[in-house]
Give the backbone structure.
Amino acid sequence: MSEPLVLDGRVVAKAVEADLQARVELIKQKTGVTPVLATILVGDNPASVTYVRMKGNACKRVGIEPLKIELPESTTTEELLKVIEELNADDKVSGILLQHPVPKHIDEKKCFDAISVEKDADGVNTASFGSVTMGGNGFKCATPFGIITILKYYGIELDGKHAVVIGRSPILGKPVSMLLLNENCTVTICHTHTKNLPEEVKRADVVVAAVGRPKFVKAEWIKEGAVLVDAGYNAGNVGDIDLENAAPLSSAYTPVPGGCGPCTIAMLMQQTVESAERKLAK
């Protein structure tokens, strides 16, 4: 068996950013206005602080203006909703991102659903998910969108393939399942309660692991030649698949780190730019 193809998300993200730089420049020329991505950070979770900084750096690379809003841990749902409403009404803002997770006392779903669908650059509003599922033009959840973008960039055939998604979260497992379905995959959605999980995974042409457990998916579960997409990121820089042993069995795989993560941020940038373009087209 030949060496598996490494699906390098950094390469894909770089290509996306190069395209976005030109598109942002065109928006500036036509309107004199720079698209703005507003990022809301509640509390000081170290991982979230890092992610917000990375997103701000990506904004600068493509020419988007980052607007960082930092709120204290004690912020209530009502106070957060007021901030979101203000950003919804701000004509300068093209995209809004509420950094996940928020403190436990906040109703995260209510806040996600308060984000205007026109500015939902992270694709977290229930209405956005519904639109994508039904083939509309709603914005997609960033990580699932990034996964599809990586697979397409590297020419991975999806039409008619059997994809097994392990994980059912509302911002990863469920939306990536719908996006794969839209690409004409036959999709099986599994999770930690699935009976005979190894047998289900063994049938897959494409495996998407999004379960949030380090090295949960074992090499012996993998069908030879399958495509492995590891959407997990756990302590110690390891994903949800035991890639050390499973990757050699695959035809292609996303590394951890450097696979899905860079493309998640790139898709956030892309949908912010697309929001600005849609407004311009009106």
Remarks:
- The longest strand covers residues 36-42.
- The mean pLDDT is 96.
- The chain is about 45% helix and 15% strand.
- The CA atoms of residues 130 and 138 lie 8 Å apart.
